[in-house]
Amino acid sequence: MKAACGKLNFVRQTASSGTASHFPARKATLANLESRLKFKRSHKEARRSGRHFVENQNQKGDKTMKQNQTKTAAPAVRARAGLEKLVREIAELKLREVALASKQDAEIQQARERYGPELARLADAIDRKLAEARRFAETHRAIFNGRRSIELASGVAGWRLGQPALRLAAGGTWDTAVAALKELPQLARYVRVREDVNRQALLADRQELDAALLERAGLRVEQGEIFFVEPKLDSI
Fold first, then answer.
1. DSSP state for residue 225 in the 8-state scheme
2. DSSP structural state of residue 178
3. Cα dist from 53 to 39, 42, 61, whole Å
4. Are 149 and 161 in contact (CB under 8 A)?
5. How far is 191 from 10, CA to CA, in rounded Å?
6. Percent of the chain scored above 90 by pLDDT?
7. Which long-range contacts (CB under 8 A, 24 or more apart) does 150-158 make?
8. Cα dihedral 175/178/180/184 (nearest 10)
9. Which residues contact 27 (CB under 8 A, 6 or more apart)?
10. Of all residues in the chain, what percent carry a pLDDT higher than 70?
């Protein structure tokens, strides 16, 4: 900026001391430098004002956030009267919740009663049509040309492989299958033996068990407190 001002002063001095033949060109140069100097000044001021605007906006945003946090912060209960008020408000909200849930259930039931019969008829019709198509396909395998499916104008018909399932052979039970697997070296590894901690029994006997003994087993029994409010809905 200082260099531009010095150059501008130099041009002014030269223009005032120059000859008349060179004055128009020097005057144009002077006007050009003055324009550039004004642009630099305005650009610098715009950057300064823009930074000031962003800082102000950030400060306003922080202030608004703090105000919102202050508004949403619940007041601390300092006496029993405050707790009474909170429990009453919970009871009132619970009543509204129960009423709204009851209304929702009633509308769902009405919708089921309204659309259920027609949906059942549609499902039954689809099942009957599907069974008929399957009977035709099973008796006319030739139209599939060795493939599992055939593409038709309105869809694709055919067979898909289902999930593999292990079934008992005729007359067998799972107990006899386990005994047989143990006797066959090639299949003995398919017998699963699972050991697990009987947590339910330990919790049931927790009063009789020594805590130090449980600690030696790497266990401990925890039982925390859960705060509750049981609204007296009939008192509202």
1. -
2. H
3. 21, 16, 12
4. no
5. 102
6. 64
7. 157/133
8. 180
9. 15
10. 68
